[in-house]
Design goal:
single chain, 447 residues, mainly alpha, three-stranded antiparallel β-sheet, two-stranded antiparallel ribbon
Length: 447
């Protein structure tokens, strides 16, 4: 009888139900999320609304498997592979059409769209964190997350209001205060959220609360920073936004279809469906597409002129301007041949190479993130595609590169930066700078 009890206990230990004591605590294995917990943790009282033992896969959406009821009956006879491809194509076409319409309506709609995408991506990431840690009753977690989102947006956008909305700032008196003390106000708002978080800590849930606090800040770093870069690119001219965004879309589509029809060789373990054939085919198609798109957009001042705030109209518009050197055709000699090209097309080549070679790693990063938490998609908003974040994982990486590229090779200075440097000069040096600039503008006929 004693031998039977000992055998039963050893089986329980080997199966992971109960393991030997460590540091005075018995360790148990929780099969629901593949982690080891102590008896002390098992004694924790679940918070109201907690779904601790609820499987993650039931809480989180699986968007690429979501097919509208209307299409299910039409596609029911197709194999799963072709059904997914067709659903993905249909809703891809719908998204591209809506995106084209917003581009046509002007920069205001585009900026609103970018901010809406930012909010939705943040919501998807926060929801995953909420489900992964399986405590839905943590006090103030969601409220704190949105509070930090607003604070971070104020920090990033407030300091650059003067560059793009200088006329508006001069007209609205209270904006002077918000711009002048921007950094102090940003820090004060963050301190308020920091104190709020500390006061919301609950005994026995410290580790989970601090994990979610870090989760929120990583989400802010990924989403808000990148959307800020995207809007900055828009103000440089719609061509700096539309070209790289279209390149990523082209690369994603062509890599998918090249992999679907010709894919044989696996590319990376993080994404088993990705193949070398899709990667190379998508890259070549992206470079060719980028050259053609750049050539077409360079002919339109709507895409090449900067976006600014118009005092007369009282809204953001594309300015009327004389095309810069980048967007005027130039003759180029190579190998005994003379070509007429736009200088922007040379820059576009580097953008297309980045989107073809480095851009996909944004998707691989997202795949690794999803595999780490055993989820398939960030959301289920778009049938055949998943969530908004599933479609913008590569776009965020591309936005950062374009912003860095413009700052490094295109727009190395701005009026605000130059004035900040001029104000540090001695009065006689400032006067010399003024007369030199005045003479230059008079020679150009501006004055």
């Amino acid at each position: 009888m004693t031998q039977v009890k000992m055998d039963t206990k050893s089986v329980r230990q080997r199966s992971g139900v109960e393991s030997p004591q460590k540091n005075g605590h018995k360790f148990r294995h929780d099969f629901s999320d593949n982690r080891t917990t102590t008896d002390e943790e098992e004694e924790e009282e679940p918070l109201p609304g907690s779904t601790r033992n609820f499987p993650i896969t039931k809480e989180l959406p699986q968007g690429t498997d979501k097919v509208p009821e209307m299409l299910k009956h039409l596609l029911i006879r197709l194999p799963q592979k072709w059904r997914n491809a067709l659903v993905r194509s249909i809703f891809g076409f719908v998204m591209i059409s809506l995106f084209s319409l917003i581009i046509y309506l002007g920069p205001i709609g585009l900026i609103v769209l970018i901010l809406a995408i930012q909010v939705k991506c943040f919501q998807e990431i926060i929801s995953i964190g909420h489900s992964v840690y399986r405590i839905h009753g943590l006090p103030w977690f969601r409220s704190l997350s949105w509070y930090f989102l607003l604070t971070t947006n104020y920090f990033f956008y407030g300091e650059n209001v003067l560059d793009f909305f200088g006329v508006l700032v001069d007209k609205v008196e209270y904006l002077h205060f918000l711009v002048k003390y921007h950094r102090f106000l940003s820090f004060s708002l963050y301190c308020g959220g920091f104190i709020w978080f500390v006061l919301s800590l609950v005994k026995k849930y410290y580790l989970k609360q601090f994990s979610l606090f870090a989760w929120t800040h990583v989400a802010l770093l990924i989403v808000v920073t990148q959307s800020y870069f995207i809007i900055q690119n828009v103000f440089q001219g719609l061509i700096w936004f539309l070209t790289p965004v279209s390149m990523i879309i082209c690369n994603d589509l062509m890599a998918y279809f090249f992999g679907l029809f010709f894919g044989r060789t696996p590319l990376i373990k993080l994404s088993p469906k990705k193949t070398w054939e899709g990667f190379i085919g998508g890259g070549i198609a992206t470079v060719a597409f980028g050259a053609v798109l750049s050539w077409c957009l360079c002919h339109s001042s709507y895409f090449t002129c900067p976006v600014e705030y118009d005092e007369t109209l009282g809204r953001i518009v594309v300015t009327t301007c004389k095309p810069s050197y980048l967007f005027r055709p130039q003759e180029l000699e190579a190998f005994g041949w003379t070509f007429t090209v736009f200088p922007f097309m040379i820059h576009s080549l580097w953008l297309s190479l980045f989107s073809a070679v480095i851009g996909p790693f944004g998707g691989f990063f997202a795949s690794g993130f999803k595999r780490a938490f055993k989820i398939k998609d960030f959301g289920d908003v778009i049938p055949g595609h998943g969530g908004i974040m599933d479609r913008f994982d590569c776009q965020f990486l591309m936005a950062t590169f374009v912003n860095v590229y413009i700052s490094s090779f295109i727009r190395t200075a701005s009026p605000a930066k130059l004035l900040a440097q001029v104000f540090t000069l001695k009065p006689d040096q400032q006067l010399q700078f003024y007369h030199t600039l005045k003479d230059h503008l008079e020679n150009l006929g501006v004055l």
